[in-house]
Predict the 3D structure of the following.
Amino acid sequence: MAVSAFVKTNVSGTLLWEDGTGTPLTLTLAFDRGDFALSGLNETLNERVAIERRGRYINSAYGNRVYPAFSLSCWVSAFQDSGVAPGNAITFLTRATGSAYAAAVSTLGAGAAVPFAFDQTYTLEGTDWGDSADHTFTLADCEVLDFAFSEAADGLSIAINGVVRGAITGDLDMTEIA
């Protein structure tokens, strides 16, 4: 893909969430605030370890797996959209009883003891700006560690914080060194 000559802004991105069922239950975020962030990236999904002998640096090596962090916030129109598809972020994350996401399955596997994880695809619009294609990457097995609700004069919102447990693929490609 050719290098783009146009710098994009927060109005150019979209986020798609998919669960682990055979035909994934999906949610394209409609009320995200355009503040998605991904941190803890490097050339691999491994930490860098300095090898020392008696206090002196010998060389560097790859060590344990690292888990990049993500964050975003969404406007809140309702706490849960039970029975309504496609629903909202809170409904997807809590898999509310009676909602379109009640039967959602973690991408880490089925079962009540398995933490809920989902795949998250970020798409950056490119073709509207003369690029040969849109730009996308997928974060596999995303776990939300917490989300917080806040009230404000400019709108109610939730802030979501999580980690990426799986691979990062697509136009941003990072894997763990075995």
Observations:
- DSSP finds one helix and ten strands in the chain.
